[in-house]
Design a protein that fits this description.
It is a single chain. By secondary structure, the protein is mostly beta strands. It is built from five helices and 36 strands. Strands 16, 18, 19, 21, 23, 24, 25, 26, 27, 28, 29 and 30 form a twelve-stranded antiparallel beta sheet that branches. Strands 3, 4, 7, 9, 33, 34 and 36 form a seven-stranded antiparallel beta sheet that branches. A hairpin with a 2-residue loop joins β18 and β19. The two termini are 43 Å apart.
């Protein structure tokens, strides 16, 4: 192969090489002469053919490369459609498996029986793969026709990075049967026990606002299902938010404290000791949360006595000091075992509440004087228990109702009717609890951080007034259902241009069968 004036190799016989070389050495003189030759009249016929061939080759190569770039880039958008007929064949889709043929029989217009072309999920997971013409898609939408009424049917796409499952709900029986008022916008649905908000935006605007105690007054009133709610501001008196607080009581074991920070640094301090009733180390760890994010963590070691000596350690002081925090509600988790007792809580914050439960330790059996206490809570059902005969006592609720603890190791309960209820105990060695509720030791320290709880069909519906879900109830389709779900895949790159898809039915083995009739997928570039 020879190279012409462009530098590319071109085919030629030996004689042609000599002729071309002779032309180059003898005929072509100055640069101006060469330009004139390429102009046309002094150029040999073979040279003209060579130039034309080279132009064609270059053009085809450029177009080929450009088409590949264009197809994978798709600047004006493109989509790919997969008709995944269950039981069919396709060169771009691996068949969903494992599935078993349905035994359902149908009858056509002439009265002839036939086997319905649907397959039954035989395991909790069914997988298939989609082959793409691109390395990535911005969006992938599915339309699924299926039968059955599972507790939950989930569709997932596997992100190759970390083998992470990106999942979306297809079917949720408990939400489908909830019977509450519903409003929908895009893919989101707001379920309301009592219709209050005309649309999803009105609900979100109130939830994220401040000065509205509609939320949070009775524990977990808002549940989320595949939906992330931005943090909201509780109803607080900002004039007393940074007033110092001191709680002159003692506590045993793990506790969760909610507080509100305005301008002062988040500051909480207490004394703690190890009573050494059990073998093993007893360290104390403190985690500070803003929403669901840990913003601070630290741990303090055991006192060095790993035995069950029942000899308490010397008290040690813990101080938490976090300046420059944004205004809002924070959660402080004091994480320790029941061998740890802490007391004398001081804080720069007025709003200081215990979430879910309080284990009072003001009793001689813990090496301290017996002390009565008065607490305030928004809980509607109070549970009380002592593990020691010395802790048996009678609790007073709202000044006149009594809850008697007649025996140790038994949980006693009472219903409470007030928005805020006052509880008085006789001594410590006592745990008080109310799921999702808050406890404080002064009425003006009680506040209600607006939080949401992930929805679960196992939770009592009475715990919630609202469920916000990135989910729509599926539409009836014949004897089954039709549902549409979509995935935002912006930034996700799939190896070998292959997307792995998973259908999941948790607890399928103990429930009714689920059939897959058809699946359609549309990917947008």
């Amino acid at each position: 192969m020879d190279k012409d004036h462009t530098g590319m190799e071109v085919p030629g016989e030996d004689g042609e090489k000599e002729e071309a070389r002779g032309q180059t050495q003898g005929e072509v003189g100055s640069t101006a002469d060469r330009s004139g030759d390429l102009g046309g009249k002094n150029l040999t016929s073979w040279a003209k053919v060579r130039i034309a061939a080279q132009a064609v080759i270059i053009t085809v190569a450029v177009l080929f490369v450009a088409s590949l770039i264009w197809k994978n880039w798709a600047p004006f958008g493109a989509n790919v459609r997969y008709e995944i007929e269950v039981g069919g064949e396709s060169g771009f889709v691996t068949l969903p498996s494992p599935l078993t043929p349905s035994a359902v029989a149908g009858e056509d217009g002439n009265g002839l029986l036939y086997q319905v072309e649907e397959l039954v999920m035989s395991t909790e997971q069914v997988r298939f793969k989609l082959k793409m013409p691109y390395d990535s898609l911005s969006r992938l939408a599915f339309e699924i026709e299926y039968g059955g009424d599972p507790d939950e049917l989930i569709l997932g796409v596997v992100n190759p990075v970390g083998n992470q499952l990106i999942s979306r709900p297809v079917h949720n029986r408990s939400l489908n049967d909830l019977g509450w008022s519903m409003v929908s916008e895009d893919a989101a649905t707001l379920f309301q026990r009592t219709p209050v908000y005309p649309d999803v935006d009105a609900f979100l605007g109130t939830f994220r606002g401040s000065g509205d105690d509609t939320f949070g007054r009775t524990g977990n009133k808002v549940a989320t299902y595949y939906y992330e709610l931005e943090p909201a501001y509780p109803d607080v008196d900002l004039g007393i938010a940074d007033r110092e607080t001191f709680i002159d009581h003692s506590f045993r074991g793990k506790h969760v404290i909610s507080t509100y920070v305005k301008e002062a640094p988040l500051s909480i301090g207490f004394d703690w000791l190890d009573i050494n009733w059990s073998d093993g180390p007893d360290q104390l760890s403190v985690f500070v949360y803003a929403g669901e994010d840990v913003i601070h963590a630290e741990s303090l070691p055991d006192d060095g006595d790993l035995s069950a000596s029942q000899v308490p350690s010397a008290p040690r002081r813990f101080e938490l000091f976090l300046p420059d925090l944004a205004e809002g509600a924070y959660r402080v988790e004091i994480n320790c075992g029941n061998d740890v007792v802490f007391s004398g809580i001081g804080s720069a914050q007025n709003y200081l509440c215990f979430l879910d439960s309080v284990f009072l330790a003001d009793h001689p059996m813990y090496g301290m004087a017996a002390k009565s206490s008065t607490l305030f809570t928004d809980g509607r059902r109070l549970n009380a228990q002592t593990w020691h005969v010395e802790g048996i006592q009678t609790i007073t609720i709202n000044g006149d109702e009594e809850l008697a603890l007649a025996r140790e190791n038994i949980s006693y309960s009472a219903e409470m009717s007030g928005d805020v209820n006052e509880i008085t105990t006789q001594a410590g060695s006592l745990m008080l609890s109310s799921g999702g509720a808050y406890f404080s030791f002064s009425a003006d320290s009680l506040f209600f951080p607006i939080t949401s709880t992930p929805y679960s069909r196992l939770f009592p519906v009475s715990d919630f007034n609202y469920v916000i879900a990135d989910y729509r109830i599926p539409e009836p389709e014949g004897d089954g259902w039709r549902q549409e779900v979509a995935f935002d895949l912006e930034g996700v790159v799939f190896a070998d241009r292959t997307i792995e898809v998973i259908l999941i039915v948790p607890g399928l083995s103990s429930g009714a069968p689920v059939t897959l009739n058809s699946i359609t997928a549309v990917g947008d570039k």
